[in-house]
Amino acid sequence: MPDAVTPLASEGLTYAAAGVDTAAGDRAVELMKAAVARTHGPQVLGGAGGFAGLFDASALKSYDRPLLASSTDGVGTKVAIAQALDIHDTIGFDLVGMVVDDVVVCGAKPLVMTDYIACGRVVPERIADIVRGIAAACEVAGVALVGGETAEHPGLLGPDEYDVAGAAVGVVEAADLLGPAKVHDGDVVLAIASSGLHSNGFSLVRKVIEVAGWKLDRDVPEFGRTLGEELLVPTRVYSADLLSLAQDASAQVHAYSHITGGGLAANLARVLPVGLAATVDRSTWTVPAIFDVVRGLGGVPWSDLEATLNLGVGMVAVVGPDGVDAALRHLAACGLPAWVLGTIGADDGAAGQDIVRGTKGVHGGAVRMTGAYRTT
């Protein structure tokens, strides 16, 4: 017979004593339900609270060959800025943008999204703020938020720490699939402006700020606001506008690239076919102040900066030469600043510091960076 076990507490331990408050989780759900419901169209069945989200996919019957596109991502260490400022209703745009704008790269319409929040302690109002931001971004993207999970991890995360992640599924007709197979010699590369840092490279940005000794409440004249306000600017969500652009036959869209981790050249190379190269002119735009401040404050080399941050280009469209004017007009009508970034031509096989090819495991085309960046 084993020895008797002596309880650690006179009344025994409970889940609440271990640091998990299920009642707080229920309160958080009640606070977020209305925001989530606003993302639901008639295709969503059952509402919130089920073990799985249900989406009526009957519309897929009209497709000749529907391809499902899926993506998952997080926000990275940008959440540390939100936590330090105690502002949690914008980080959802970063999450949704990172996920659905990967789906739209191949021309797919995002249909459903789910989210996951891990936290050290459930504070209902904070969790609801996060999810309300996710839901608001889903409305902009035209995607239904059909499910989610909030997990309390006491002892693993601090009481005021959290991390967020999400996943989305979309659909595209096979004949309308965008990507390397549609890119040709003579195509034109268009840049579409970012809203700022978006959600990549914050480990570098935060380290620069730490070493410099800057505080988040510091007023920065170059930004016209505090450092914290600039860092927390939400990621621009492009998916609905870029779907409408892809459906505009006069724009001749052949490929999109989402400029996230790895920077412009590495991500553009992923959507080009072997044998072709994009020549990109760095002087075609003025790098926004936040990037130049990070560079100057940390003494960060331009080469490292452009391989880490978006430098003001959030998305890229590769279009046919006869579609440039129509594409730029369409993007302007959507309120998206855009400009001609470069052209597509034959890859001469050259190598060097300013040439990128074969990134992120993709055996694709090349990107040649030319010119010098302009700053304010």
Automatic annotation (TrEMBL):
Domain PurM-like C-terminal: 185-351
Gene Ontology CC annotations of this record: cytosol
UniProt-annotated location(s): Cytoplasm
Keyword Nucleotide-binding: yes
Residue stretches making up the PurM-like N-terminal domain: 57-172
GO biological process: 'de novo' IMP biosynthetic process; adenine biosynthetic process
InterPro entries associated with the record: PurM-like_C_dom (IPR010918), PurM-like_C_sf (IPR036676), PurM-like_N (IPR016188), PurM-like_N_sf (IPR036921), PurM_cligase (IPR004733)
Chief localisation class: cytoplasm
The entry's keywords: ATP-binding, Cytoplasm, Ligase, Nucleotide-binding, Purine biosynthesis
Enzyme Commission number, as recorded: 6.3.3.1
Pathway assignment: Purine metabolism; IMP biosynthesis via de novo pathway; 5-amino-1-(5-phospho-D-ribosyl)imidazole from N(2)-formyl-N(1)-(5-phospho-D-ribosyl)glycinamide: step 2/2
Catalytic activity as recorded in UniProt: 2-formamido-N(1)-(5-O-phospho-beta-D-ribosyl)acetamidine + ATP = 5-amino-1-(5-phospho-beta-D-ribosyl)imidazole + ADP + phosphate + H(+)
Molecular-function annotations in GO: ATP binding; phosphoribosylamine-glycine ligase activity; phosphoribosylformylglycinamidine cyclo-ligase activity
Tagged with keyword GTP-binding: no
EC class of the enzyme, as a word: ligase
Domain of life, per lineage: Bacteria
Similarity-based family: Belongs to the AIR synthase family.
PANTHER family, per the entry: TRIFUNCTIONAL PURINE BIOSYNTHETIC PROTEIN ADENOSINE-3, TRIFUNCTIONAL PURINE BIOSYNTHETIC PROTEIN ADENOSINE-3-RELATED
HAMAP family cross-referenced by the UniProt entry: AIRS
Name by which UniProt lists this protein: Phosphoribosylformylglycinamidine cyclo-ligase
Source organism: Pengzhenrongella frigida
